[in-house]
Amino acid sequence: MKKVFTFVVLTLLVASFMFAQDLKLPRVSQKASVTQTVGLTEVTITYSRPGVKGRAIWGGLVPYDKVWRTGANEATTISFSDDVKIGGQSLPAGTYSLHTIPAKEEWTIIINSAANQWGSYEYDQSKDAIRIKVKPQEGPHQEWMMFSFTDVQTSSATVKFAWEKLRVPFKCETDTNTKAVANIKKAFEGMNDWLIPYRAADFAFTANLDNKAETMKWIDQSITLNENYWNLRLKAAMLARDGKTKDAVAVAEKAVKLGKENKDEPSEVEKTEKQIAEWKGRL
After folding, report:
1. For residues 245-274, b (16+ Cβ closer than 10 Å) or e, as one string?
2. Which end of the chain is more exposed for a tag (fewer CB within 10 A), N or C?
3. Which of 141, 174, 207 marks a domain boundary?
4. pLDDT at residue 246 is higher than 80
5. Domain termination residue (choose one: 174, 204, 222)
6. What average pLDDT is seen over the chain?
C-alpha cells in the first residue's frame, strides 16, 4: 500500500511539473527586439525591458562598477549580419551578448562572444570580443528601458540605450561601400538591363566613391544599352562634378530633348533645364 501511495504522489508531482512548464504568464520585464539596416547590414538587439517603478536605479537597483546584463532576464543580445566596427574596433558578423559596467562618469560597453546567458551570472571576461568606454548623457525620463538607433547613415548608426534619465550611446560602423561595389560587379555578370549599370553609377556618384573612371564606364554602359533621359542626366552631373562643364551642357541638352520626347517626369526635366542655364553661366 505504501508503494502504491508513493507512486501516486510521484505521478502527481511529475504531472504538476509538466503542467507548470506549459503555463505561460506575462513577464514583469517584457521582451523586445529592435532591428536597423545600416547600409546593407542588419543589426538586431533583443532584450527585456525593466521599469523604473519609482526605484533608485543607478547605484541602487543597478550597482556601479559591476557587470550588468543591460536589461532583465536573459542577457541582452546584439547581432550583425556582416562584419562591423564598434567604437572603431573590428567585430566579425554574428550574435553576441551585450553587457555593460555602469559608472557615474563613464560606462564600459562589453560585446561578449557567449550569446546565450541568463543575466550576467555566467559572464566570462575571457570571452569578450570588444570593450569600449563611453560617456553617459542625461535625458528625459524613460520609464521602460529601451534601445534605439539614431543618426542612421549609409555606413553607420548610433546605438542608444535609454532608461530612467540616462542615455548611453555607442557607434556602429559598416563597410557598405565595399560590399555595394562587390554586389555591383556580381550583378554585371550576364547583364543586359540598362538599369543595373545606371543604379551602380548613381550609387557611386551619390556616395562620392573614389572610382570615377569605373563609374563613368558604368554610366556609358547603361547609355549603350538604352540611351534615355535618366542616364544622360546622370552622366551630365558626373561631367560637371569633374569640371567638364561644356561637355556636361551638351549631354544635359540631349537628356532634356529625350525627356520631352518620351514624356518623362516634367518636373525633373525642368530641373535639368535650370541646371543647364546655371552651367552655361560658368562658361
Report:
1. beebbebbebbbebbeeeebeeeebeebee
2. N
3. 174
4. yes
5. 174
6. 89
Question: What single DSSP character describes residue 228?
Answer: -
- Edge to edge, what strands does the sheet with 107-112 contain? 30-38, 41-49, 76-80, 94-101, 107-112, 128-134
* d(C-alpha 103, C-alpha 283), whole Å: 61
pLDDT score of 6 more than 80: no
Q: Residue 2 — pLDDT band, cuts 50, 70, 90?
A: very low
Q: Which three cell numbers stand for residue 274?
A: 535650370
CA distances from 165 to 32, 60, 142, 143, 162 (A): 20, 14, 6, 9, 7
Enter the C-alpha cell of residue 226: 538604352
- pLDDT tens-digit profile of 221-242? 999 999 999 999 999 999 999 9
Residue 61 sits in the same domain as residue 195: no
Q: How far apart are CA 239 and CA 252, in angstroms?
A: 10
**79 and 181: one domain?**
no
Q: Which residues of 197-235 are buried (b: 16+ CB within 10 A; e: fewer)?
A: bbbbbbbbbebeeeeeeebbebbebbbebeebbbbbbbb
149: its cell numbers = 538607433
Strand order in the sheet with 156-174: 89-91, 84-86, 156-174, 137-150
Residues 258 and 267 sit within 8 Å (Cβ to Cβ): no
Query: Which residue in 194, 207, 184, 201 sits closest to 258, CA to CA?
Result: 194
DSSP letter string, 154-179:
SSEEEEEEEEEEEEEEEEEEE-HHHH
**Residue 34, C-alpha cell as written in the block:** 529592435
Cα dihedral 64, 67, 72, 77 sign: positive
**Grid cell 530641373 — which residue?**
271
